[in-house]
Structure formats: structure tokens, C-alpha cells
Amino acid sequence: MVMPKASFHRDDSLFTAKARFAFGSVDLGTISWVPIKQTELISTIPVDWESHFVYSELSAGSKIKNHYINLSLNHIRTLPRNPDKEYYLRDSASVLVLNGEYGYAFSNSRLDAGYTYIGADMTVYGIYHEETSRKRFMYLPIEASVHMSYARWQWENLWTHLELMHISGKVFSNQERFYETLALNRALPGSVLKGLSFSFLQRTFRANAELDASAIVSGASYYWKKGKRYIFKPSVELDFFGASGEVNIQKEIETVILTTHQITNEKTLRKVSGIGSILSLGIELQKEGPVSVSLQYGISQIIPFYVDYKDYLADSDGDSNSKPSGGIIGSIVNPNEQVAKDKSGSLERSASALLFRNGFATHLGIAVKF
What are phi and psi of 276, to 5 degrees? Predict the structure, then answer.
């Protein structure tokens, strides 16, 4: 990764500006397609994902007496590439990040507030490379936005904070450009298609999904400081949180066998909400000197007050509408339509008990300053 940077600032810190530019690549891992039944003809297909990006940043800040303000603009763009691999994912994305911060220093306290917006527009392609041809077997457009804001106040050894967050996202099938989201037949070699007669069996998937979630976290922490050369700092923090979200998925499966045409619709709606608290206890032992060394240890426990989870699912057969595409073979007919229903209802007690048993964390750290 290459990252040149330029900055400007006055000696009195009245105004600062910074520009940064970077480009490189990052390996995002491997996604595997595992067939329901392993055979000699069809095995697990690994798909590598490597993203090539260009990053740019522009920020400016000012400090006037007890006020300070900082604004920044960040943009990430990925460039689609075609590596010399049999299977790979290729992405084209644009991510915009806007951030603003304000602070004011009182005589013995400090107030900080900020807001961040993230907007992303991304398209992921699944490509099968065979000799001189490249076949697209996946087309996945994604849109997402994130809004985050915070306020923090520090008075001597007391810290208070308030954070708000809202996330929304959408995966949609753009039939004006590509008819399907996933067409697995295109991910198989021609010899396999002929051997399995897949040329007569075509199955494609079109998916649409929406995500919407919100959360609020507020709390306070207090720490004590004892000693001079060896400093002992115990701390306690109590946070309260509330969160809610839902995801709505609509999947259409189209199957074509010769002249038989069947379309099956599957709908899923999941909702979750919860209120609770997080109790954290910490301890830090620090040795002052030219080289400062500190040892930190802490524990945290989630204490849920209320958790509600609902799963609205269609029956296993889903909504099926079948129609013939012509010819003399006929069609598969299933006129019964299934209505989505609440299968689980509220899971307040069981989910709360599960969170209370498993919502525990501990950490140990060491820091050296010189």
C-alpha cells in the first residue's frame, strides 16, 4: 500500500489542514460454494476475493481559545480487476465518509460532540474464468448508510457519554441490467453441464433484502488514582443500551426444465429489540518514569432487562407460482399460496437468560510509553 500525505498547520494551532492519498489491495478471503451432495463431477468451489482500492482524505481543523472544531472528508473507491484465476469475486464500490467534531474546554471539565455519516454503494460480481471466456454467475448490488453521533463530558475523574447509531442497507436485484442475482449453472464447466444434463435444467436466484437497525448507548465511568511513582487506578463503568432492528428478505427461485417453468418465492422477516445494561470493572497498575509501563485488566457483564425476537417465515414450500414457457411438456403447478406467520413470537425469557450466561468478557493488556 502506498500512502503519500501533506499537511499544513500554524504555530499557534489556529488552523490545520491535511490531505492524504493511498492506493493498494487487500485480500478479503475466500467464499466457498458447497454442493448439497458431493460427487466426482461437482466438488466445492472456492472463490477468492481481492479488492483494489484508492483512498483519499481531506481534513481541516481550528482551535480558537477554548473551542476546537475538526471536519474531514474521506472517500474510498475500488477498481474492478480480472485476475488470472478460475473463480474470483470482482467488486466496484464507492464509500463516502463525512465526519465533524466539536469540543469546548471549561475550567475543570471538557465537552465533546461529533457526527459521522457513511454512505456506500457497492456491486459484487462472481466470475468463472474458463480459457478465453469469462462467465458471470453472481451479480449483487448493495447500498448502505450509517449515521453515528456522540456527546461526551469529562469532569475530573468522571466520564459520561451518549451514543446514537442508525444503520440501513439494501440488496436488490436489478433486472434492467442483469436478470438474476445468482445463476449457478454458469459456475460449472461445459463438460460438467453436459454430463449432468444441466443444459436442460436451469436454476436462477433473485434476491432482495432490506436492513434497518438503531441503537442508543449511554452511561458513565469513574476512576480513582492512588500513588505517585507506582500509580494504582481502579475504575467502574455502567452503561445502558437499547437496540432494535429488522431484516426483510425476499428470494425468488426460478427453475426451467426444458419447457417447464416454475417460480418459487420465499419471504423472511426477522425483528429483534432489547434493553439492558453493561457493568464493567477495571484496574490499572502504572509505573512512571522515562519509560512508563502499565498493566491493565478488566471484566464486563451484560445484564439484559428485556429481549424480544420474532421470526416471520413462510412455510418450507414457500409461495409458488408455476407457468409453462411453451411446448408440449406442460408445467409444474402448485396453486397453494402460503402466508408468512409468526413462528416463534417473543423469546424474552430464553434470550435474556442466554445473554446473561454468555454476555461476559474479560481483557488483559500491557502498554509501554517512551
Answer: -170, -165
Q: Which one, of 190, 334, 329, 135, lies nearest residue 253 by Cα?
A: 334
Helices and strands, number each (H, E), in the chain: 2, 16
Give the contacts of 107 (CB within 8 A, at least 6 positions apart).
Answer: none
How many residues in the chain? 370
Q: Is the model's pLDDT at 231 over the cut of 50?
A: yes
Q: Supply the pLDDT for residue 339.
A: 39
> Does position 172 have pLDDT exceeding 90, yes or no?
no
The per-residue pLDDT for range 174-193, each reduced to its tens digit, is 766 666 788 777 777 777 76
Closest CA to 234 of 278, 280, 282: 282
Q: Report the C-alpha gap between 294 and 71 in whole angstroms.
A: 33
Residue range 201-218, pLDDT digits in tens: 677 888 899 999 999 999
Name the pTM for this structure. Answer: 0.78
The domain tally of the chain equals: 1
C-alpha cell at 43: 466438488
Q: What is the DSSP letter of 341?
A: E
Beta-carbon contacts of residue 47 (< 8 Å; ≥ 6 apart): 30, 31, 32, 33, 87, 88, 89, 126
229-265: b or e for each residue (b if 16 or more CB lie within 10 Å)? eeeebebebebebebebeebebbbbbebbeebbbebb
Residue range 300-307: mean pLDDT, rounded: 89
Distance between CA atoms of residues 233 and 217, nearest Å: 25
**Structural domain containing residue 275:** 5-369
CA angle 255, 257, 262 (to 5 degrees): 35
> In terms of C-beta distances under 8 Å and separation of at least 24 residues, what long-range contacts does 348-355 make, across chains too?
348/306, 348/307, 348/308, 351/274, 351/304, 351/307, 351/308, 351/309, 352/304, 352/305, 352/306, 352/307, 355/276, 355/302, 355/304, 355/307
Instruction: Count CB neighbours of 312 within 10 A.
Output: 16
Q: Which three cell numbers stand for residue 137?
A: 454467475
